[in-house]
Structure prediction request, 382 residues.
Amino acid sequence: MIEEGIDGTDANPAAAREADEALRKAEDAELAARREHPENLDTEFASPLADADERVIESALRPKRLTDFTGQVRVREQLSLILQSALRRGRPPDHVLLAGPPGLGKTTIAMIVAAELSTPLRITSGPAIERSGDLAAVLSTLSDGEVLFIDEIHRLARPAEEMLYLAMEDFRVDVVIGKGPGATAIPLEIAPFTLVGATTRAGLLPAPLRDRFGFTAHLDFYSPGELEIIIRRSAGLLGVTLTDEAAVELSTRSRGTPRIANRLLRRVRDYAEVRADGVVTGDIARTALELYEVDFRGLDRLDRGVLEAVVRRFGGGPVGLSTLAVALGEEAETVEVVAEPFLVRCGLLARTPRGRVATAAGWSHLGLDPPPSLAEVPGLFD
Prediction:
């Protein structure tokens, strides 16, 4: 079981120094590897998913307070009221559920909740809690008012999920000792805590668990203007000299996701330091992103591969997911989870009962004329 404890206060200079040192080491190692092997360029880094190394860098770039958090204005205001009210009452706030696509700041908000409450933060994930005993071990060691963050909470094991119901409502867990008719349930009181759950698939949460959250926040994609602010802040933390034109160029290709924006910034930074004078200008940003195969709408190699396969190989569709995955040499889940959501959101691809279909905008994006059937505007009764 993976579990991590973090001090919720941001007044710890030692922790700040450790975070800065971790960022510096990760950045130096990453840049050295790219200088040594410039041919190994990742062409699918427009995915909103993050690996372990990237999470180390992200942790140092995260805002520490709600006032520093950019975007999600309505969620930020609602959460501020909940936290301020809890602080005035001297009681833990209601449990919080954060729902939204990957890379939008769910983990960051969980850390901010703990920082605003000046309480410790305990971090774990749904897949890491395999048995109810794992969850009981975490809950029984929580201190009064501590924030427990469970990422991917929809992937909790069923026994752990049922134990969580009682813990969220009554701050109590029943530990079963023995088996069969002789089994005994021993009630165990736990300290009042606040659960912050994060999920990318809110529809998979069972209704009993979803109803026990006092506040549910749905995170939306960010506007280019908000991403531009995030990019400038990250550039300052990373020591990157960035022009206004470059910030705009990066923000428009970041797919509305801060994680992708920070990733693009680091890749363009690498290009500027290795092949230029280190200053990220608009021309440098465009040249670097062309090298990494990220086009003006944020589509990467996989996205364009999906779109081109539907249009060029299957005449615009419809084509089934498994057939499309075989044509690309990718797993069906990769196509469905990584590429399709952004293509559908951009209006370049459509999902129909018969399969995936390229829209007129999808044809035009590839520089092709859409067939007349797509250009026709349907009538009222069509």
